[in-house]
Amino acid sequence: MPMKFEFAFSKSHRPAGGVAVLLQVAGAKEAAGAAVADPEGVLPKAAKVGKFTGKALKTLDIVAPHGSPADRILLLGLGDGSALTNHDWLKAGGAVAAKLRSAEKVTVFLDAPGVDVTGKAAADFALGMEMNAYSFDSYKTKKSDDEPKSQQKPVKVTIVTGMVIAAKKAFAVAHAIGEGVFLARDLVNEPANVLGPVEFAAKAKELEKLGVEVEVLTEREMKKLGMGALLGVAQGSSRPPRLVVMQWKGGRAKEKPIAFVGKGVVFDTGGISIKPASGMEEMKGDMGGAAAVTGLMHVLAARQANVNAIGIIGLVENMPDGSAQRPGDIVTSMSGQTIEVINTDAEGRLVLCDALWYCNDRFKPQAMIDLATLTGAIMVALSTHYAGLFSNDDRLAERLLAAGITTQERLWRMPLGKEYDKMIDSKFADMKNTGGRHGGSVTAAQFLKRFVKDTPWAHLDIAGTAMGSPTDEINQSWGSGFGVRLLDELVRASYEA
């Protein structure tokens, strides 16, 4: 069962049992809260014996410390206290949460000597705890034998800091961000037999409770719009496609919106160009881009962002039945451009091209960003540590790179160019949907570029980061929710009034 926390912020607090968490920078003689939690001075000797030096994210656990009002003292190292970033505080909170699986109440003494602790730092620490504790076990009928019954109720956490008012205000925003990340993780982790296009659209529709305007376009409406590329992908499935349009109107009335477009292939067999059986179960996560966009729209609404934002997700299932499109078929996109389908497993770009054109044509956004688990080629280039960034606008690219550094949802800019464009020219149509094996992620982005006109645009290939990426202090989940924090930071830093 996922561990839940109930947070309180206080200027002072004396533990009465439970766990006391003390923070210490490298080389410091004393940890935060030592006078309260360790009146007998147990810590210096314990640290010496345990060779604890305050190195970042290293811990020392002392059970039943003599003379302490707490049942346990957990000492956490912060490393160089003068160089802590927002992400460092997230990781610190996550590292602590990982040690609290049996806790019922916790007191965190945050204001370590030698550290400037802001309200945002306190909020990020709490968010890091929440993000580490997330797990997806909805379909397990039996919980692990060693999980205590106490985890059925929230762990009470008191964070002691001098920045109480600022921390409470910042945590309201941080908690909203966490909710958006968890929504994205839940969507990616759900099995495809439960989360089809219709069910996904219903999940997005729930954002109306937060003030998001949500429209759901059916197959009939998409046919009228001429979305032949998107519909071609969906025609092999018995489950009908959906296009969901989410609008958050938090900015000035006439201000152009910033738009986010997500690939939502709820399951991808590859179609007639069927994928190998091994690992195909992971293709339930081929809607990671749509999940991130939905999670982002939740965040923007929940924290009442001062921006006009559009979220559009194309939801389809790619199946190989008798109605499925074939290699060699030619489809007509909403833009009027024709596409020769060389490989039915290059389906995400077919979904996105119609969604991008629709977004640009209807909303005239100041910028568009699409997210997609688009190519295995990007994993060959960047592994699972960076997402690929392609853009027709240097300023937008720089803003995204900066947001990636701040959140550590890192991006690496990849090339676009006429040379790659020629690789997707077709003998029989305006273009083909794949340029072959070489430069696969680049030719996919070059394909999408044909559907954005001159609007500042960026494409994020998150195939290696949205699912199955390495776990760390703030993510222990297969579905990572990658992109939610990144794009929220982009909006906050570059687009909010």
UniProtKB/TrEMBL annotation:
- Tell me one Pfam family matched here: Peptidase_M17
At which positions is Mn(2+) 1 bound?
268, 345, 347
UniProt domain Cytosol aminopeptidase: residue ranges: 343-350
Task: Give one GO molecular function term.
Answer: aminopeptidase activity
Please verify whether the record's keywords include Repressor. Answer: no
Binding residues for Mn(2+) 2: 263, 268, 286, 347
Q: Which residues form the active site?
A: 275, 349
> What protein name applies here?
Probable cytosol aminopeptidase
